[in-house]
Amino acid sequence: MHMPAITAFYLAILALLYAVLALQVIRLRRSNKAAFSDGGNTSLRNAIRAHANFMEYVPIITLMVAMIEMSGASTLRVHLLMGALLVSRLIHPFGLSAAPNSLRFQIGRVGGIFITISLLITCALTILSRLPWSDFADEVSTQAIAAIHFLQVIHIILTL
After folding, report:
1. H or E stretch at 1
2. Model pTM?
3. What phi and psi values does residue 32 have, to the nearest 5 degrees?
4. Exposed, middle or buried, 82 (CB in 10 Å: 0-12/13-18/19+)?
5. DSSP secondary structure of 78-129
6. What percent of the chain is predicted at pLDDT more than 90?
7. DSSP 40
8. Which of 11, 121, 128, 131 shows the greatest Cβ crowding within 10 Å of its Cβ?
9. H-helix or E-strand containing 12?
10. Closest CA to 113 of 62, 54, 59
């Protein structure tokens, strides 16, 4: 097992993007004098959602890609996964600030979340496919057989 250096590199870039999103929320809160909620301001609401949406998806996907990298996946695969995550998180905020059904909305919001959900599913399936299922199945069957033998012994003792 090795340090997931590629994932760590992208995570650092994503952390900087997260800071930009947080600073945007702070800036809009100050300019709109909205300490809590969005104060009815659409721009602030969109900034809050972009910030929150980032936090909802980036940690779990990054964790899964790190696990994939540590399990020996190719560097190209890790770059593709993390690069796609970075692209999706860069375009998503632009879509949130666009008019619904506009091209910017479709590319940013719809495209960003499509890439993100695809990554979520791809990473989950990749991890599941790399787990040692045969070892797990062997252990479960061994434990089940031991439990049956134990129950047979208990049965014999109780029927004496």
Report:
1. none
2. 0.78
3. -100, 5
4. buried
5. HHHHHHHHHHHHHHHHHHHTSPTTSHHHIIIIIHHHHHHHHHHHHHHHHHHH
6. 51
7. T
8. 11
9. helix 5-31
10. 54
Inter-CA distances, 130 with 72, 84, 111, 123, Å = 10, 21, 28, 11
Place of tokens 């994503």: 14
Measure CA 146 to chain center: 39
Residues comprising the chain, all counted: 160
Does the pLDDT of residue 95 top 80, yes or no? yes
Sequence-separated (6 or more) residues with CB below 8 Å from residue 6: 69, 75, 78, 79, 82
Greater model confidence, 131 or 63:
63
CA–chain centroid gap for 17, Å, is: 16
| 28: its two tokens | 């809009």
